[in-house]
Amino acid sequence: MELAQMQKSLQDYTKSLFLEGVLDSQFLQLQQLQDESNPDFVSQVVTLFFQDSDRILNDLSLSLDQQVVDFKKVDPHVHQLKGSSSSIGAQRVKNACVVFRSFCEQQNVEACHRCLQQVKQEYYLVKNRLETLFKLEQQIVASGGMIPAMELGF
Amino acid sequence: MEVCNCIEPQWPADELLMKYQYISDFFIAVAYFSIPLELIYFVKKSAVFPYRWVLVQFGAFIVLCGATHLINLWTFTTHSRTVALVMTTAKVLTAVVSCATALMLVHIIPDLLSVKTRELFLKNKAAELDREMGLIRTQEETGRHVRMLTHEIRSTLDRHTILKTTLVELGRTLALEECALWMPTRTGLELQLSYTLRQQHPVEYTVPIQLPVINQVFGTSRAVKISPNSPVARLRPVSGKYLLGEVVAVRVPLLHLSNFQINDWPELSTKRYALMVLMLPSDSARQWHVHELELVEVVADQVAVALSHAAILEESMRARDLLMEQNVALDIARREAETAIRARNDFLAVMNHEMRTPMHAIIALSSLLQETELTPEQRLMVETVLKSSSLLATLMNDVLDLSRLEDGSLQLELGTFNLHTLFREVLNLIKPIAVVKKLPITLNLAPDLPEFVVGDEKRLMQIILNIVGNAVKFSKQGSITVTALVTKSDNRAPPDFFVVPTGSHFYLRVKVKDLGAGINPQDIPKLFTKFAQTQSLATRSSGGSGLGLAISKRFVNLMEGNIWIESDGVGKGCTAIFDVKLGISNESKQSGIPKVPANPQHANFAGLKVLVMDENGVSRMVTKGLLVHLGCEVTTVSSSEECLRVVSHEHKVVFMDVCMPGVENYQIAIRIHEKFTKRHQRPLLVALTGNTDKSTKEKCMSFGLDGVLLKPVSLDNMRNVLSDLLEHRVLYEAM
Can you give the pTM of this predicted structure? Predict the structure, then answer.
């Protein structure tokens, strides 16, 4: 694939992520922080996010599968996930976490299970998309090109 | 013929006597034989008889006796030696047994007697127990009655029901003829018959409270038997043939909420009592039993408690109703006030527009007219018209402004302007009048007075104009000095006002001194009230609405300043001083930056040491990335303990994440304050939180944090925050 084409598809892909609400402007902030002195900032942060979130989701599944759910343990996990996802701009994950937290407060086990599914869904979605994004970027870099800066119209 | 030892009748046998003896002996023998049989039979039947051995002995004795008598039958006629032998054996045996029995009986009979006594004793005991059972049963009955009565009384909170129920139940339980309750009147000097059992509408009957019988009853908590002829017991007209039943009276304490609030009424005792009078049916021989009296006493106590509860409930319900009424009234009043304000605002808005339009027309046309060719008289007339209409326009503006100021709906229009020019303009406006009055005006501007400032130019001009105008108005001679300077906190100011110059603001102080009429120090407070003017003949002619100072004061307050007047007395002139807060503008041109304070450009934070504390790894990394991008030297920690260990005076700012619910996160701020006692060594503390509400902000302030930031932080936001923070050392705007 031609470099220009790759760059265009990367731009379109990123734009679609924003339009769908999978990512928000915080992700742009992260990209702004990436410069020559810190070339892998975004991928580092995102990798850390994936590691953290995998662990948290595991813990959440375990906690919710207990006979008697201890909401005092569940809530901090969700809070943590919410914080992480809002730090990198994973908007849908963050929103799902907000809903999750409110059901945690109500101690509604059924709803919490549903929320967990929802969160997992959104998380795998954003993970998937970001991994695709990074692959595209790597392809561009491997072809010797520059990753175009994102201009957002909104 | 053998010689026998038996006793033989030596006289010729009397055949008749013989026969009778024969028969008697026979019957005796039969009886003697049948008695043991009977004994054996009955003993076998009873099986509890303890003295079997005695019976056996007795039986043996009787049998042998019988045998002896039987054998005797054969001795009447000649008999053989065998018979005699048998007879002798029998007799010997009988003797032995009877002696043994006799001896035995000596032991047995006392036992048998004691059994009898024990039996008597047990019977007595049984009788006693029966009596006690009877007593307990009566007590239990009484207790049951009391419980039932109490339950009835306490199941209602209505005072009348309580009392009525008490009387009814007591009447029923004790089968009373009449039951009455006397309550103390309001004055406390009389007892009034309030409730009776049988009479439906009790007569309004009172007795004085100081009767000896009543004192006797009130003096003790027990039920007291009183005479049926006492005034409290005579409830019905007495017809002579009745033998009145016994009457008992008991006191019922009326409890108050607080028995300790004693108004000094010496006649009233602190405890008030009601009197309950109970009458047994007449013409019955019934007497008051102890347990009945006890029942009455217990009931009286319960009634007291129930009554006080009912009274308290009544009070609280009344209070609540009162409050609700008041609430409703307040609500209505508030709504009316709101309507009134709305109506006034509407009126003002309409009138404002309606009045200004013709006003403008008049002023504009008069000015135009002034420009044309006019004769001197015409010119004078036009000038008067112009002056009057300007005055009227000003008056209208003033009224409108003041009402808006009072509403709080007036807002300052901030802009950048040239302060020096403003003063000069004011002076130019006033100069003509001053020259006419021959009052020299001087303007002194302090050298450090900033030239370009941010504030509400129009209103500031209004204030200065008003003050200087007043000075000119009320001076007949002397000079007027206007001084403007930047004030520092050690200048003389009213004691309750402290000026703290911050970075991009300063306080402008303007002093207008005149040597004119002066003001009586007592009148100074009145100066700033609307429509009031110090009445002195000399100033009557100066006109003016009296609103000027009031409006100026409002404007000065809006600009976070203060205004006051000092005078040494009438005829000694006065000085008007005011402070207002203005912003310093960086721009040298009047381009008008709307925000205060001004935004510095790309600030450089190279090498600024900061500390980031965040439990969340991802957000920690992001914050660090932000700060690194801005050039800071960032250390990260993930817990408050680590933060305390690592923080040092080299760190200029500490960013701490306080997202987790609870107060623990804020403790770190307190500990840092404790660690760094010198203010300049302490790093600035900024909280990063997802919550932007007022309570979070207040919490942060109360824990000594210097600023709050909303997560997630954007690059520009962080940049601005850092620069503001380092400039002012305080930041509460980046929300």
Answer: 0.36
